[in-house]
Amino acid sequence: MGWMRNHRKSGDESQSINTNALGIGIATGAYALSFGAISVASGLSVLQTQSLSLFMFTGASQFAFVGVIGAGGGAVIAVATALLLGARNSLYALSLGPVLMPKKKEVPYTALLTIDESTAMALRYNASKKVSRRAFFATGLSVYVFWNIGTALGSLGASALSDPGVLGLDAAIPAGFLALLWPRLTSGSSSENRKMWTVAVASAALAMMLIPFLRPGLPVLFSALVAVAASLLWSKASTPAEEN
Amino acid sequence: MWASILIASLGTYVEKLLGYLLPQRILERESVRRMTGLLPVSLLAALVAIQTFASDQAFLINARVLGLGVAVVALLLRAPFLVVILVAAASTALVRWLGWMP
């Protein structure tokens, strides 16, 4: 595959790309252990769990999907929540298009590998199209492989347990969502972070208030209204968010 | 279950695909960028709250709350993802085992 071959020109850079890609892959693979375990604890089979990692391949949506199913929210709400969370991948792909310039036949697998980690790496190593592509595919493939291995080990491990509650797996679910949320609250400028915290707290509060009135899963969907309202409110006042 | 897995997987894949097929000028619309940036924050924050405090359609405070608190501390200490989840699960399991919280 092309991006693996062009090592000579910028040896240091490709070395650092490979090291980072591997590190990111191992870290997300470890995280996938908990996804596998949580998914099985939520009532999905090992095969269903693996299908999500193979074909959906976007962590937050996968966690949300099994979370809603586990809470008894039903299939429709689970699908809707996963899709809403996955909407950001469209934005990633839009920004990656001119950077990676995939040929038509490359688009199907480029799309599959378009996730938080591969996007961040492609936009970080932006010296040339070649370097960006190498960073994107090295990271995307590394995460894909480790994410699926981790999922398999986690789901097989958890399916051997009789009661996942004993291991505190029900607490691992919100902790996992919080770990996904955390970088979005802490990695921007201080004014940006303050806005993110406002949206997060308002969304959490709205969802909690709706718990008694709506069936499980729906309060989370309704919380998306906070994001919509905030983006309309702030769309004029804000500085454009640069993607690098 | 299989049908919803198929639809959700297909849907999230189409979302990724769309970004490569749609015209670039959509990116220039600030409101679109802002909304797709804020949606995960809203949904993830709501998921944290619901998965911690809800049991079906009722509030329930149990050992999960303690696990979440431990997760916050771990995140403040810049612990990696897996450590955050492990300490949350382990602390929850521990207080249950000790019989302090359900």
Which quaternary structure do these chains form? heterodimer
Number of domains of chain B: 2
Q: Proportion of β residues of chain B?
A: under 5%
Rough shape of chain B? elongated
Overall, the morphology of chain A is globular
- Average pLDDT level of chain B: 91
Structure summary, number of beta strands of chain A:
0
The interface involving the most residues is between: A-B, 103 and 76 residues
* Relative strand content of chain A: under 5%
Explain what you see:
The complex is a heterodimer of chains A (about 240) and B (about 100). Chain A is an all-alpha fold and about 240 residues long. Chain A folds into 2 domains: about 190 residues, no CATH class; about 55 residues, no CATH class. In chain A, about 75% of the residues lie in helices and about 0% in strands. The N terminus and C terminus of chain A are likely disordered. With about 100 residues, chain B is mainly alpha-helical. Chain B folds into 2 domains: about 55 residues; about 40 residues. A two-stranded antiparallel sheet of chain B has the order 1-2. In chain B, helix 3 packs antiparallel against helix 4. The longest helix of chain B has 24 residues. Chain B is elongated and about 60 Å long. At the A-B interface, helix 2, helix 3, helix 4, helix 5 and helix 6 of A face helix 1, helix 2, strand 2, helix 3 and helix 4 of B.
